[in-house]
Amino acid sequence: MLIITIRTDKPEAELAVYEDQKCLTSLSWLAHRQLAETIHQQIKDILKKVGKDWADIEGLVCYQGPGSFTGLRIGLTVANAIAYSYDRPIVATAGDDWQQQGIKRLLNGQNDKLALPEYGATANITLPRK
Predict the structure, then answer these.
(1) 90 falls within a domain
(2) Tell me: the pLDDT tens digits for 48-89?
(3) Structure pTM?
(4) Domain count, the chain
(5) Mean pLDDT of 101-123
(6) What is 16-55 written as a DSSP string?
């Protein structure tokens, strides 16, 4: 199973391509405020590096947090869009071994269908001023 892993909770974003549990390649880049502009090209490039294309993705693993609100939102939205458009399974995990947890879940046939973020704190919603 060709699996893409995505982590976007901090300024340095991370991607990896796995064939089952074997990492074929990985990359990280300082995405910071350019994450939305760079993530699609980085995914395309990492797939090309292993001779694959978007349609070859068979599953996605995402780091769900805690972390940056905007970073998690962008990364999980991109991953959910890929999973939805190609009808592929997606799982969201946390912790130091998030990739291994997620890959194991995918290989066991699990599918969250929608990767949801965990921001690490409750939302601080302010009342309108007027």
Answers:
(1) yes
(2) 999 999 999 999 999 999 998 899 999 999 999 999 999 999
(3) 0.90
(4) 1
(5) 92
(6) EEEETTEEEEEEEEE-GGGHHHHHHHHHHHHHHHTT--GG
